[in-house]
Amino acid sequence: MDQITVDPLDRMVSDYTLVTNGYSGNAPANPYPMFEEQRARCPVMHGDLLKQHSIPSMADYMMTGRPTITLLRYKDIHAVLMDPENWQSYIVGDGFGAAVDNMLLTAMDGEEHDHIRALLQRPFIRSEIRKLIDTLIKPVLMQEFIEELRPRGKADLLRDLALPFPIRAMYQYFGFPHDKDLLQNLASWAIQVVAAPQTDPAVAAITIPQSMVAGQAMYDTVLPIVQAYRQRGDMRADILGHMMQVNDDGRTFSDEQIAAFIRMLLLAAGETTTRSIANMMVQLLENPDVLEEVRADRTLVPKAVIETMRRDPTAGAVARVAAKDMEIGGNAVAKGTAVLLSIASANRDPEVYEDPDRLWLKRPMRPLLSFGFGPHMCIGMHMALAEMEVALDAMLDLPNLRFDPAFPHPQIRGLNMRGPDAVPVLWDV
Ligand code: HEM
């Protein structure tokens, strides 16, 4: 009998769409009018906006019934993120921490968090990442994606670029061997771990055990890579090279510790950038005057990246829990209550952003919340920004880039992990 083989890229697209479905629940694809109404009426809302739409919420991934409030204003969310002593992060590990032996930076608090973060930080700082633009990010993008796509005159920017490119660039920076199957297996397992929390208990009964298997498979795959790297003894300027040499109070990390750190980073390393690239392109193609503005003046590329991430962020929400009785926005919050922070709502708060629905490259910027803020602010931010800038610059060189009218208009959807299912485009060749 013929074996049916699934193209690994198709498998990644289908895993990606499953995550989008999970985080869309029964929410409207465009949630911004709902946020606007809620923010004006009651910006400190009792209940969990995600759960209300049948979406797994990091405020209570395991559906324990933890009391939760949702914050919708920029200033309240900013205040919580800047006060990690009183608003803690450990609840975020409830959903899939078990699948990765609870090695999740995002779910650590206090000294433990700061210590581990400081040890991992160096290869992610802006100056290190900027060096990669010409040596890694641009060559990978141009040689493996753009040069192959350009003569075709058409593409699904999600499947053909936004999904495989950030993973490919990031994995090279980890120091992994260049092996397509390895890359796609790890990327799929990472998505399966993240997809563990589900609001439907029947679905969770499948996804939770599956996430445990995926988490173990990631570790079992990464450990021999770490061991081989060490045996080779050739330390390079990549993440593995850094982790092998970093000095933690006179000791270096063991291979097992490094494998656990790498697995943790892999969970966050690919899909978030994919979604951000796709959301950026949909917004720019929907606003051809803005697309033209940035095409004509490439110094605006970093602004276009930031402004599209503000206007429609993929990380729509994060969560914290009150370490003691607190007060926020004039409301008492009892110890143990979770707060769901709607970043997507904060990003369109008219108290902070003038004409917030407009895609406006020259708007006066405020500290961006789309990578979080405070001590947990995304460690991979500079890598993601560099990948997005390089990708946008290259796509602007595709003449007359436009939506392909043969396909339905892409719709960005979800209250978290927002993204479109596809971004079909045409350009002139
Ligand atoms: C555009 C792409 C990305 C977006 C939108 C994004 C978003 C976020 C957000 C919102 C947080 C804060 C979570 C919280 O405060 O609870 C975060 C943290 C984190 N991100 Fe990213 N991320 C992106 C790319 C990456 C990449 C490429 C990596 C990998 C290297 C990464 C690794 C992490 C890690 C390890 C944390 C936890 C940091 C800590 O707790 O100290 N992210 N990210």
From TrEMBL:
Gene3D superfamilies assigned to the protein according to its UniProt record, in alphabetical order: Cytochrome P450 (1.10.630.10)
Keyword Oxidoreductase listed: yes
Highest taxon of source: Bacteria
Keywords, ordered alphabetically: Heme, Iron, Metal-binding, Monooxygenase, Oxidoreductase
UniProt GO molecular function: heme binding; iron ion binding; monooxygenase activity; oxidoreductase activity, acting on paired donors, with incorporation or reduction of molecular oxygen
InterPro entries recorded: Cyt_P450, Cyt_P450_B, Cyt_P450_CS, Cyt_P450_sf
Keyword RNA-binding: no
Family indicated by similarity: Belongs to the cytochrome P450 family.
Protein name listed in UniProt: Cytochrome P450
Phylogenetic placement of the source organism: Bacteria, Pseudomonadati, Pseudomonadota, Alphaproteobacteria, Sphingomonadales
